[in-house]
Amino acid sequence: MKSSAVHRLRLVSGPEGLSFILLLVCSVLKRTTSFNAVPVMGMVHGVLFILYLVFLALAWQRQRWDAKRGIVLFVLSVLPTGGFFAERMLAKEERGEYPAAPAGAASAA
């Protein structure tokens, strides 16, 4: 089932994951060289992270995901490469390869 909420969340998850990795690289460079891009990357990552959380809340509500799915997607957002795994998971859902509803809900209906 293609949902615009899931699509938006998928579109922001990759850049959010990349911005987290770049922020970590900038933090290391700040401490080892005179290069300091942490303020800029911190702002970029912060905006993308907030967008991810807003889109996660919207998708969670519209798709009626169970708590496990929402928590997994949240935990992936705070892991350095988690955004890429979240994007892959959401792409499978958009293609219909990943069940959108919990297994118990389908049998109860």
Folded structure, characterized:
This protein is an all-alpha fold and 109 residues long. It is 79% helix and 0% strand. It has 5 helices and no strands. The protein has helices spanning 4-32, 38-63, 67-77, 82-95, 103-108. The two termini are 17 Å apart.
The parts where pLDDT drops under 50 for at least 5 residues are: 103-109
Rg result: 16 Å
Secondary structure tally: strands: 0
Question: Structural class of the helix and strand makeup?
Answer: mainly alpha
Characteristics:
single chain, disordered C terminus, mainly alpha, 0% strand, 5 helices, 109 residues
What's the SSE blueprint?
Layout: H1 4-32, H2 38-63, H3 67-77, H4 82-95, H5 103-108
Helix pairs in contact: 1-2, 1-4, 2-3, 3-4
Short description:
By secondary structure, the chain is mainly alpha-helical. It has helices spanning 4-32, 38-63, 67-77, 82-95, 103-108.
